[in-house]
Amino acid sequence: MKKYTLIFLFLLSLSAARGQDSSSVKFGLGFTLVDFRDMANTFFSYHYFSPNFSIPIVIKNMVRIEPSIGYFNRNIEFKSQENENDFYKVSDSNTHLGLGLFFLKQYAPLQVYWGSYFSYIISTEKQNDKDDRDTEEGDGYSIGPAFGMEYLFNKHFSLGGEIRAQYLKLVREEDSTRETADKDKITYHSFVTRALITLRFYF
């Protein structure tokens, strides 16, 4: 249901943009260069991959609607120094389908924006060691306020920073090779903060 709601909101945003005078609407492409939530994991020797792309739609330089898609993959491996066959691995992957709604304030060449960001998340976590394998699959969502600033180099390029504070909920079903394991649904709740640096190009 959450997935279809997000698709509906995305189509509604495109429809609203098309309904405006074409001279007052501009479209663009965005790419997240750094996600400091993910970057913090490097201190724990994690291996991660986290590209994020967006389509900013600016209406009358006052409102920005920004659908996005992102992918996060993190791999953790622990090995015993005494026995090389004794190991523990965790692989965590999440696909995000997001939608942001922001109000803009111009202080040329700076642009300040604030609003909210919602994302539907498809999540998988795999854990395995020399004896067992556990897999959790499911979905969920995150929602919360966001604030950012971007520097406009010219009418086409900008570089910006953004802070998000989000409530996260995931519901995943566990599937395990352990004989005593049952298929249980596990619900995760958390509050996360993220800081992003994003490059945007406007047509």
Automatic annotation (TrEMBL):
It comes from the Bacteria. The keyword Signal applies. Residues 6-177 form the Outer membrane protein beta-barrel domain. The keyword Ligase does not apply. InterPro entries: Beta-barrel_OMP (IPR027385), OMP/PagP_B-barrel (IPR011250). SUPFAM superfamilies: OMPA-like. Residues 1-19 form the signal peptide. Pfam families: OMP_b-brl (PF13505). Keywords: Signal. This is Outer membrane protein beta-barrel domain-containing protein. It comes from Caldithrix abyssi DSM 13497.
